[in-house]
Design a protein that fits this description.
Length: 222
């Protein structure tokens, strides 16, 4: 190896040694790669030295790895910022009512809301409401209904016109299909109590629908 090459290699190794003291753990792999490259250059055959293109390629690989690490760090930072913004946005839902897939109705101050979804118009549907123990307390026949989402409101009175206590109730909606009653998809009501961050991501803890992901919220109410 020529004196010029050896000097350049020593300079590279010296710079590496000085800078490696301040490198983070994430860069250890790059450090090992650079150490191997410098060792290879020092111990190369003087009669068959490494080609410049080969050295350039290996150095370019170091830059690529470093660039990927920086990109990953940037994406991680963006993810953290996005999660913080999403959490702040979700916190504004605390105390609000939401509709999501389910069959729960929350009677509050003599008022309850829910909804059902029809994939095609129906000649008529029937709504039934039950206590948590399964006892039916209310039923109502509705006239023709269009396709799409239709809201249900209930004043908390039973079929006997008794005002029932506030709390959680279950409901179901059926339509006549081919001469037989068929269950209809329903949207239950939940009151957001808190925002929880767990292994599943950002979740809304609701009274009525339980844990609900933001993407599962179909409608936001008061």
């Amino acid at each position: 190896m020529s004196t010029v090459t050896t000097t350049a290699t020593d300079s590279l190794l010296g710079s590496f040694g000085a800078s490696s003291k301040t490198k983070s753990t994430a860069e250890n792999q790059q450090d090992r790669f650079l150490t191997l490259l410098v060792t290879q250059m020092r111990n190369q055959d003087p009669l068959n030295p490494m080609e410049n293109a080969e050295v350039t390629t290996q150095i370019a690989q170091i830059s690529t790895v470093n660039g990927i690490d920086k990109l990953n760090a940037t994406l991680k930072s963006m993810e953290t910022s996005f999660l913080a913004a999403q959490t702040l946005q979700a916190s504004s839902l605390i105390g609000r009512g939401v509709l999501g897939d389910g069959d729960s109705m929350l009677l509050e101050r003599g008022q309850a809301t829910a909804a059902f979804v029809l994939d095609q118009p129906a000649a008529g549907v029937e709504v039934k409401i039950f206590r948590p123990d399964g006892a039916q307390v209310y039923s109502k026949l509705l006239g023709p209904q269009p396709a799409g989402t239709t809201a249900i409101t209930w004043d908390g009175k039973s079929d006997a016109q008794e005002q029932l206590a506030d709390g959680l109730y279950k409901f179901e909606v059926t339509e006549m299909r081919d001469g037989k009653p068929a269950l209809v998809d329903t949207l239950g009501f939940g009151r957001v109590q808190s925002v929880v961050l767990d292994a599943q991501g950002l979740m809304l803890d609701t009274r009525g629908l339980g844990a609900l992901a933001l993407g599962q919220v179909k409608q936001i109410l008061q």
